[in-house]
Amino acid sequence: MTQPRSTRFRKERQKVWFELEASILKAESEGLSALSADELARLPMLYRSTLSALNIAREITLDVALLRYLESLSSRAFIMIYGTRKTFLRLVWEFVSHEFPQSVRNTAPYLAISTLITGCGVALAFHLVIADPSHYFAFVPAEMAGGRTPSSTTESLRAALYDDGGGDADSLAMFSSFLATHNAKIGITCFSLGVAFAIPVIYLLFYNGLVFGAFVGLYASRGLTLEVLAWILPHGVTELLAVLLCGAAGLCLGTSAAFPGEISRWDNVKIQMRRVGPMVIGAVIMFFIAAVIEGFFRQLVQSTDLRWLVASSTAIFWLYYFGFVGRR
Amino acid sequence: MKPFPIRTPEGVILDFKLAGLELRLMAFMLDMMIIFGVSVLAGILVFIGVYASDSSGWLIAAYMAFLFLFRILYFVVLEMRGRGQTPGKKVMGIRVLDSHGSPLTGSATFLRNVSRDVELFLPLIVVLAPEALLPGAPWWFMVFPLVWVLLLGLFPLFSPLNLRPGDVIAGTVVVIQPKLELRDDLFNTTKKAKLALTSGQLDMYGIQELQLLEKILRDFPTAQTLHTLAEKVSAKMGIRESEWHDNPEAFLRMIYAQLRSHHEQRILFGDRQLEKREGHYDSISDS
Hints:
The structure holds 2 protein chains of 2 kinds.
Chain A (H helix, E strand, L loop, with lengths): L4 H26 L6 H24 L3 H19 L5 H19 L1 H24 L4 H4 L2 H4 L8 H8 L6 H26 L5 H22 L4 H34 L6 H36 L3 H21 L4
Helix pairs in contact in A: 1-2, 1-3, 2-3, 4-12, 4-13, 5-10, 5-11, 8-9, 9-10, 9-11, 9-12, 10-11, 11-12, 11-13
Chain B lengths: L2 E5 L5 E5 L3 H32 L3 H26 L5 H6 L1 E5 L7 H23 L10 H20 L6 H6 L1 E5 L22 H4 L4 H13 L3 H15 L10 H21 L14 H4 L1
Antiparallel strand pairs in B: 1-2, 3-4
Helix pairs in contact in B: 1-2, 2-4, 4-5, 8-10, 9-10
């Protein structure tokens, strides 16, 4: 009885496989840097020769154990060699400097639409509340109002904007943290409901605009427009922008689901999700930045002028960032 | 275990196996246990800190920020550092892979992990407090998003490859980490054959039977199985019972060795016989 080819094949080649296996196991447990320069240099050669052994083995051998081993070894080596090569910080930097602003620029028309929808909500609620402050309750749920209602005096409304020992600023901090989580929730909901042909997104954006408009309207009816904007905008610029981005992402998904063009609906949604994904990630980070500005900065700065300064500098920053960063 | 073939840049197709839902759930629960443990530990420290100082608001705010960041970053950073494996996944022997075999990108990792929050918690909100999803909307308007969100949560049960929405968005799959184990060549552990089979006899079985025989010899070599098998094989190949009666295992190994040698010789000439032949070997018609 002659020795089968596969047995000879195994004997001739297995030294290479075992060397690759040792390198892989070492790199997997201690990182690629644990390999010596020599081992590292041999890695691609070992990988390619194992891969070609797998190719040959598939043709000539009927030894299942051998086939399984080569398959596993090639797979593990493949992951080691073609897996993530960059460090985490490098990837974060690439995201910040390219992926995010580019993804926002790619969806600029949707961003304009989502801004328009929110703007309509703001304008509508603002005018209704100015005309008759009791409309306020139609837009702001009672648990969110936190005692700031049309029946509050102008003085207590003003006091709530400044932490001058009045104590009302505390309850306002509560409200703003509520608003933050509320906004973040709306943002993420916008994105995940977008596939439903964007209808819930339009509703959510409009509703969010209504709450904002009613809130500003209440203060405006007491002549505190500038002060309340100075209170909201330092973090509000970032936060509202993030909501608008999520809304734009949702609209984009909705349209892609409604009008898939020549490919299947589901495929189109998948493609668009990958396109707007970085935007939603960025928006989540922006919500976080807004919360930090709100939680730490606003307690420290009481001057209206300074607050305006911060608000306008964040606005300029985002304009610059989304307009110019990462352009080719 | 569904197969998931990936073509390497070298043009070789590697057959990965998709990890099932239960493995992935277990890995996730392990990771959540680690996160929960660290959060509780940090919570105890914060609790002590709140008692020790009077500006407790900052500490609590910082703790909330920590909880949020830790939960998100735990998965993202560890999955990247571990080449697609968080500690939980490592224990369960599974890993994340780009579905086209390209390197796992940062945003893919981020997307699949952030979207898990949405997938898990949105349906929870829907079930516990439906009115919180679209505040102020009339009830009939809620039906559409409700259905969608529930679909989102139950998606992995129905999607063809049991993928999560997060995996679909990020273009990733979770596969089983292949085990590195080279088992002995059965051929080498076989004694020299005293019985030479003709090629007509060997042709009675195909490659499928050969590989099934290998599996049985390796994994289920009970006396009962081997005896029954030897009986069948010898009948089909026309071998007398006295040849195998003392030691069915040695006989079957001998058959295996000769079959493999024979079929490997044949596939060299592009002649793959996958299945066995019908009937029994007949020495007269063979010659």
